[in-house]
Structures are given as C-alpha cells and as structure tokens.
Design a protein that fits this description.
Among the domains are: about 5-95, Rna Polymerase Sigma Factor, Chain: A (Orthogonal Bundle), CATH 1.10.1740; about 115-175, Winged helix-like DNA-binding domain superfamily/Winged helix DNA-binding domain (Arc Repressor Mutant, subunit A, Orthogonal Bundle); about 210-320, no CATH class. The chain contains 19 helices and 2 strands. It starts with a helix and ends with a helix. The chain has a two-stranded parallel sheet with strand order 1-2. The longest helix has 27 residues, at about 5-30. With about 425 residues, the protein is an all-alpha fold. The chain is elongated, with a radius of gyration of 25 Å. Helix 11 (about 235-250) packs antiparallel against helix 12. GO terms for molecular function: DNA binding; sigma factor activity.
Length: about 425
C-alpha cells in the first residue's frame, strides 16, 4: 500500500475508533491525558508496522489491543513502583490470562459503548471553560487533530494545543473521575455536553470568522457526536431535540452557498438542493421527542422551527405564524437577546416588518448584542422592507463593520450599496 493510502486509511480508522479507544484506556488508567498519549502511541506503532506487515483485517481492533497492552505495561510499572507486584489492578487481572495479551477483537463488537459516553462527560466537565470543553471534545471524542481544530476555529495551532494541554491538566488536578455523573448532577453535566455539541454545529453552520460562510466538516462532527449521544441516552428528549435540529439545519448546507461560494439567504435558497434524507431523519428525531414528552425543551422548540421551514416546498408556503408562536415559547423557556432577535424576524414575516422592527428597536441598547452583527443586519433588512432605504444602508454598513466573516461582510456591503442606490 502506498504511504499516502496508508495515511488515509489510518486517519479514517482513527476518526471512527479513537473515542472508544481513549475511553477504554481512560477507564483503565483513570486519566484522560495519559489515555490519549497511550492511544497516540498505538497510532505511532501502526505507522511503523503497517507499511511492512500490511493493514490488519480489523485495524480498529489492532489499535485497541496495542493501546491496551501499553496501558497494562503502565499499570504494571505503577504497581511495581508502589511495591504491589503481587496485587496488580483489576484491569490486569481481568484482561490478562496466563500472561497472554487481550484478544485483538475483544470488546469491539459494539463500537459505541459506555466508555464513549463517559469520555464525552469528562471532556465537557464544568470544571473546564466552555472554550476548553469544545477543544477537548473535538480532540478526544471527535478524533480531530490539533491543527484541524485550530484551523476550524481560526486559532494559532500553538494556542489551541496549549488550551488542550491545560484542559487535560485541569481534569487531572481536579481528579475528575472517569464515570457518568450521578443523578444529582446529571442534568447540569448533560446540559454541558449538549451545549458543546450545539456550539460546534453552529460554528460550522454559520462561521463566525474567516472567509467561508459555512464549515460543513464541523457540522458533520457535531452531528456524529449528537447521534452517538442519542444512541447512548435514548430516553432523554432534549438529546433527540438537538439531533433533530442539527439534521434539519444540515439539510440546507449545500443550498446556503452558490457555485462561487457566495452566501444564499434562506428565502432565496433552491429548496431542491436541500437534503431530503437529513430532513426525514430530523423529523423522525422530532417524533421521538414528542413521544418522550419533551416538545417544549429549548432544542426541541428550535427543531420544530426548523421543521416548519423543511416542510415548506417553497418559501411562500412557510407557516410564519407557527414559527412566531414557537419563538414565543422558546423565549419563555430559554430567554436571551439572540432568541428575541430571531423572534423579531419571525414576527416581521408573520405580521409585517413594522411589528418586527418594534422588537428589534427594544434590543438596540442590549449589552450582549453591542458587537453582534446580526442586530444591525436584521434592522437593516426590516428598514429596507419598509422602504426606509437610506437608514437600511447605514445599518448594513454597521453590520459589515462588526462581522468577522469575510463572506458575510461582502454580502452586507453589497446590501448597503443596493439600499443606497434605492434611496437615490
């Protein structure tokens, strides 16, 4: 096999298997940082051995067995150092028989198990900052390389690497156990996991900075993590609500840009380019939410809003009154200035731009939106619809100055020019 083919194969295997491997090792050594190092050692061993011996029939099992052997060596060394040569840990006693290494396919029948869920909860532990949770989740659960994560969030690789190192050190120093949280803290910890996945998806769906309007790879990764979590927590309605939201939103990705990569706004999109399979998956997840009685959770409500768009064959068929009502409900259960701004858009579509502008104008002094490009962007759109083109142009220019995304800046600058032309 050519070197390039080998690297592609190994990268693909790593993306699929890394979370389970690191989770298994973390359960053994009780330290996610060391677990990742051991998993990386197995990856290096594959790079050294596979070119000469060939790719194993089950490469994931090979990586798992190799990594576990290294973990067992570490546990032996720890036991010897502690003077406990006759009392090795549970992992060695149960996973070794007569000195033989674990079977290459041991424990790999189910590629997604409790260890992955534990790893998710550890990577999203509240002891870490939100930024660290995102970075660590993508690194350990998503299987992304540090340079890939740095590029995705437009950070220097060294900065991102330091963030991950500090996160692992924090978890180690805080002695965060590698276990699922108890009932008393499950809600808080699950909320943190869902929030991280949501943030990753949003950054992919509408990039906050850089040249690209979207980053589909981040959406794909968030969807994968959400689907894993839904498999491991099938009885939690909000997990399915988040998956439903992401499936439906992701269905529009191809239509969000034109052939030249320029942004295409929702009402202008070619709905024939929407992915019907993802829409069906999203609607099915939304049905599971209803069956679990969770229709009024924040993610479920957002998914229901997305479903209104998905069910409309044409933009003119959209049930904006229902969307406005859903935003009213969302504002009750998860109030925020951003939700209120989105509600203003829905109200403007359901009841006219003047009604929406009243809501937006009440948000103009909101501190959280002071540097938020969408506030003047939405206001500019409403003013343009009211025929107040000179004011609209000014708002679009203000929004263009605030955004960090080059594609969005270009779009807003063009809208400012068109409004200025319309104003004469």
């Amino acid at each position: 096999m050519a070197c390039s083919d080998l690297h592609r194969t190994l990268d693909a295997v790593w993306r699929i298997e890394s979370a389970r491997i690191i989770g298994t090792l973390a359960r053994m050594v009780r330290d996610v940082g060391i677990a990742e190092e051991l998993a990386q050692d197995a990856l290096v061993a594959a790079l050294e051995q596979w070119p000469h011996k060939g790719v194993p029939d089950n490469p994931g099992a090979w990586l798992t067995a190799t990594a576990k052997n290294r973990a067992l060596d570490l546990l032996r060394h720890r036991s010897m150092q502690a003077g406990k040569a006759d009392a090795l840990t549970w992992e060695i006693e149960t996973q070794m028989q007569d000195g033989a290494p674990p079977a290459p396919d041991a424990g790999v029948d189910n590629p997604v198990g409790d260890d992955v869920l534990r790893l998710m909860f550890v990577a999203c532990h509240p002891v870490l900052s939100p930024e660290a949770r995102v970075a660590l989740t993508l690194k350990m659960v998503g299987g992304l390389a540090t340079p890939d994560i740095a590029r995705a969030f437009l950070l220097p690789e060294a900065t991102l690497a330091q963030r991950i190192v500090r996160a692992k050190r924090t978890l180690s120093e805080a002695r965060v156990p590698f276990e699922l949280p108890g009932p008393a803290e499950l809600g808080e910890r699950l909320d943190a996991v869902l929030r991280v996945i949501y943030l990753i998806f949003n950054e992919g769906y509408a990039a906050t900075a850089g040249e690209d309007w979207t980053r589909p790879a981040l959406c794909d990764e968030a969807l994968r993590l959400g689907r894993v979590l839904a498999t491991l927590a099938p009885g939690v309605a909000e997990v399915h609500g988040l998956v439903a939201l992401m499936e439906i939103q992701a269905s529009r990705l191809r239509a969000r840009t034109d052939a030249a990569g320029r942004p295409v706004l929702l009402l202008d999109q070619d709905r024939g380019r929407w992915d019907r399979l993802l829409i069906r998956r999203g609607l099915a997840a939304l049905e599971r939410v209803d069956a679990l009685g969770g229709a009024y959770g924040p993610y479920a409500l957002q998914a229901a809003i997305a479903a209104c768009h998905a069910r409309a064959a044409q933009a003119g068929d959209t049930d904006w009154q229902r969307i406005a009502a859903l935003y009213d409900a969302l504002a009750q259960v998860a109030p925020s200035p951003v939700v209120e701004l989105n509600r203003a858009v829905a109200v403007s579509m359901a009841f006219g731009p003047a009604a929406g502008l009243d809501i937006v104008d009440a948000l103009r002094d909101e501190p959280a939106l002071r540097h938020y490009a969408l506030l003047p962007g939405v206001r500019g759109d409403l003013l343009a619809r009211l025929g107040r083109h000179a004011e609209a142009s000014e708002e679009f220019r203000r929004a263009a100055a605030l955004t960090q995304n080059e594609s969005e800046r270009t779009l807003l600058t063009e809208r400012a020019r068109l409004s200025a032309d319309a104003a004469g």
